[in-house]
Amino acid sequence: MSRLLVCSPDYFQIDYEINPWMRRANAVNPARAAGQWQALMHVLAHDVGAGIERMPPVEGLPDMVFTANAGIVAGRRALVSRFRYPERQREEVYFERWFREQGYEVLTLDKTLYFEGAGDLLGFPDTWFGGYRQRSDIRAFPRVGDLFQREIIPLELIDRRFYHLDTCFCPLSGGDLLYFPAAFDSYGQAVIAQRIPEDRRLAVPEEEALRFACNAVSVGKYVVIPADCPRTSQLLEARGYRTFAVHLDEFMKSGGAAKCLTLALD
Ligand code: ARG
Fold this sequence. Notes:
Layout: E1 3-7, H1 30-47, E2 51-55, E3 71-74, E4 77-80, H2 86-89, H3 92-101, E5 105-107, E6 121-123, E7 127-132, H4 140-148, E8 151-156, E9 169-171, E10 177-179, H5 186-195, E11 201-203, H6 206-209, E12 217-219, E13 222-226, H7 230-238, E14 242-246, H8 249-252, E15 263-264
Parallel strand pairs: 1-2, 4-5, 7-8, 10-11, 13-14
Antiparallel strand pairs: 1-15, 3-4, 6-7, 9-10, 12-13
The structure holds arginine (ARG).
């Protein structure tokens, strides 16, 4: 069974602006956010059959709901994130505490080696890809690769709207890749093409990438994607995946959707 870490949106709001989606004037509707988050939890637990682990939210830390950025977990080891922006650095101690309390062996990086967890590190069982420049630092990946004994292929994120790798790149459990090619430079696109055969690359159209089509949760043959991405759903269904659409526009005000709201624990 797949286990996912989540954190409820009790204190979720737009208190600061650290990505181009966030505008303080565009306030979160707390009741709608809570409803959308509950609906996502329902799909993950009941339709997809994932195990849900909850960590307590903390007042004053509005982005803690985006647990993808807590760190990365492999086996019983957890590497805690080092956030680029001070606004989110205050989350690190809470994520670290949660991992320790759950009995993980906790690994950390130097304070100045920015690394934003599963938001910027994604992959297939043996090859991992690391998104850098906007949040994570490319210098973090050799260190993370050593810690986990994995090859990490760095991918530069060139479009400010796609500031974390998980906003434009989504490896699927069947070995396919859902992605938005224009978020990467020509070198990145060439590396992706070299590593993933053409018939396994599913390119999302820009208007759906902007509705966070790539910010999907993949569990076995199930893919949970943000609503209003019909062409992406079609691409996925044609490859044999079963899709579930969830409305998450309250979270998009902060620059996140389905995938960012979860952290894979295995
Ligand atoms: N407002 C949050 C930030 O800018 C959104 C994080 C979304 N997380 C993600 N994994 N893409 O940090």
